Amino acid sequence: MPSPKNFLITGGAGFIGSAFVAQAVARGDKVVVLDAFTYAGHRENLADVEGKYTLVEGNICDGPLVLRLLKEHAIDAVVNFAAESHVDNSIASPAAFIDTNIRGVYTMLEAARGYWNSLSGTAKWDFRFLQISTDEVFGSLGKTGKFSEQTPMHPNSPYSASKAAGDHLAGAWFHTYGLPAIVTNCTNKYGPRQFPEKLIPHMITSALAGKPLPIYGDGQNVRDWIHVEDHCRGVYLALTKGKPGEVYCFGGDAEKSNIDVVDTLCAILDELKPRADGKSYKEQKAFVPDRPGHDRRYAIDDRKAVTKLGFTREYTFENGIRDTVEWYLAHEEWRKTVTSKKAA
Questions:
Q1: Which of 86, 218, 289, 333 sits a CA distance of 20 to 30 A from 80?
Q2: Candidate list 135, 197, 255, 263, residue with the active-site label
Q3: Domain hosting residue 83, numbered range
Q4: pTM for the whole thing?
């Protein structure tokens, strides 16, 4: 693949996509962002790279638009971050997840196939389509063991089922048509600019607003956490060093129960922004009925990414979570802006 590269990054105004855009711009790559600007996508997420990328507002279900962008910008690689991703929303209203995460992926793959077939020589050889996915497609683990690229899929929510379908489509377009597609499955992400419906930013924003900190069930559901910057570096490695048709898993080597994550956040907030009444933010914890079909534990074995791609992590959970809390404390206007958009 040539360097610098021409990327089409879908969902590039979202949490993970915007982090990848910033890394690509810093490398000198040419970036075209396609984003539908639903409640989770915000121009504010790209403020640090303003003027250094091309922005197109549109939907990945619009095949002619996607094909036009591929051709006009001589795209070397598509990175599909665009997705409906909140499990609770998928339980309440699954239709949008089927539309974006399945039909959208199909539309993107078909547009990419048409474009790829028009290429020749090294341009065709170097082209990549990278489908960003989740460890949730594998289902739930017991007390031991980890997911890997060989783990059979067993999704348990409308969200994870829709993502599993997208993964299968990408694999099928490689095996049937030869489209050089790669799939990455990653564990739970955290870091700056994550929309406040997710666990870590939701707890930070709720704590600062004096609201209850809702914890599902007994709080013992376990997740493996990776900083968004480390995840995006892994995605780039999959693009540049990965083999078409392969799947690569990325983990954070940081398994934490939900209650431990909340307690950690409360302790950091107690230190950095104490409550006016002198009490701990832990006083705001509130246990609520568990989510339907709530997976008990996720964890990723990413030895394949380490050995085949040279993947490493720069963040530990301890320094990454403190940096994250500090970012949210320093960006109150961002929190207010994106939360108000969701409410609207």
A1: 333
A2: 135
A3: 6-195+226-254+293-316
A4: 0.94
